[in-house]
């Protein structure tokens, strides 16, 4: 009898035990909230700005493609844009390959 200690039952923190379940999931929920504000939301904002820029492309705009080519927009079709990269040299690229819209007069300064 001296080697065995008495075992007493522990009462739960609350009647249903929901408090411990909620506190165990709180770090996981907090991690998803932080990930949303630091990663997902800025990426969605950037994609929205890119779509607005592609929809606003017009003849005469100066642009940079994803390949690094600079040129002036000559013609805009549904999914394609014709860009003049040198006098008399025109290339056709997809709208999605245009990364930056340059201010007017940038090409003359180069």
Automatic annotation (TrEMBL):
Q: From the UniProt record, give one GO term of the biological process aspect.
A: protein transport
Cytoplasm listed as a keyword: no
Q: List, alphabetically, the SMART domains matched.
A: YajC
Chief location: membrane
Give the record's GO CC terms: plasma membrane
Keywords of the record: Cell membrane, Membrane, Protein transport, Translocation, Transmembrane, Transmembrane helix, Transport
Is Glycosyltransferase found in the keyword set?
A: no
Transmembrane intervals: 22-40
Give the location in the cell.
Cell membrane
Q: Name one Pfam family in it.
A: YajC
What topology in the membrane does the UniProt record assign?
Single-pass membrane protein
**Annotated family:** Belongs to the YajC family.
What's this protein's name?
Sec translocon accessory complex subunit YajC
Record the organism.
Answer: Janthinobacterium psychrotolerans
């Amino acid at each position: 009898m001296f080697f065995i200690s008495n075992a007493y039952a522990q009462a739960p923190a609350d009647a249903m035990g929901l408090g411990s379940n909620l506190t165990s999931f709180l770090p996981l929920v907090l991690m998803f909230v932080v990930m949303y504000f630091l990663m997902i939301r800025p990426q969605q904002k950037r994609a929205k700005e890119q779509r607005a820029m592609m929809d606003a492309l017009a003849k005469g705009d100066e642009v940079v493609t994803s390949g690094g080519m600079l040129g002036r927009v000559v013609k805009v079709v549904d999914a394609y844009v014709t860009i003049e990269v040198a006098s008399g040299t025109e290339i056709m690229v997809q709208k999605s390959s245009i990364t930056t819209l340059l201010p007017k007069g940038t090409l003359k300064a180069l």
